[in-house]
Amino acid sequence: MRIGQAVDIHQLCNGRDLILGGVKIEHEKGLLGHSDADVLTHAIMESVLGALALGDLGKHFPDTDPKYKGVSSMILLEHVYHLMDEKGYKIGNIDSTILAEKPKMAPYIQKMRENIASILHCNVDKISIKATRGEKLGFVGNEEGILSMAVCLLEEK
């Protein structure tokens, strides 16, 4: 077994879609980034890469490479899945948390879980996604950004 953990943060801004777990969420702001800035999927990918000791997202998908401009993080997650598969591992489980003041995440979480489980070729019950607010404290509470954390357990196939 191998364990990985990660944190990812993106700034909220006007003129972008808010994408989390591959789900477009209705909100007046989106996340700023080179790709679609899916902070949840980024944290999950980095936890898997960390468990495999393969570095971070910037090593695999540099923001200086134009081919990743606006790319869906679901495509990047598929690449991470293939790295994990090639190394002889599968998902044991993933536990993740989204910290966002707004919008409410509850209506979207099941679809996020399904999207991620589908790409990682595992049962949806191996993917946990929770959400909490910033309680008006810090950059999350002031609606300046969204933070996600993830921990994964990988098992040998």
TrEMBL record:
EC category: lyase
Catalytic activity: 4-CDP-2-C-methyl-D-erythritol 2-phosphate = 2-C-methyl-D-erythritol 2,4-cyclic diphosphate + CMP
Residues of the site described as Transition state stabilizer: 34
InterPro entries linked to this entry: MECDP_synthase, MECDP_synthase_sf
The record's free-text note on cofactor binding: Binds 1 divalent metal cation per subunit.
Cofactor(s) of this protein: a divalent metal cation
Keywords in alphabetical order: Isoprene biosynthesis, Lyase, Metal-binding
UniProt keyword Transferase, yes or no: no
Residues binding a divalent metal cation, per UniProt: 8, 10, 42
GO MF annotation list: 2-C-methyl-D-erythritol 2,4-cyclodiphosphate synthase activity; metal ion binding
Leader sequence segment: none
Key word Metal-binding present: yes
EC id: 4.6.1.12
Pfam families linked to this entry: YgbB
Residues that hold 4-CDP-2-C-methyl-D-erythritol 2-phosphate according to the record: 8-10, 34-35, 56-58, 61-65, 100-106, 139
Annotated CDD domains: MECDP_synthase (cd00554)
Subunit annotation: Homotrimer.
PANTHER family: 2-C-METHYL-D-ERYTHRITOL 2,4-CYCLODIPHOSPHATE SYNTHASE, CHLOROPLASTIC
Main function: Involved in the biosynthesis of isopentenyl diphosphate (IPP) and dimethylallyl diphosphate (DMAPP), two major building blocks of isoprenoid compounds. Catalyzes the conversion of 4-diphosphocytidyl-2-C-methyl-D-erythritol 2-phosphate (CDP-ME2P) to 2-C-methyl-D-erythritol 2,4-cyclodiphosphate (ME-CPP) with a corresponding release of cytidine 5-monophosphate (CMP).
Protein's recorded name: 2-C-methyl-D-erythritol 2,4-cyclodiphosphate synthase
Species of provenance: Faecalitalea cylindroides
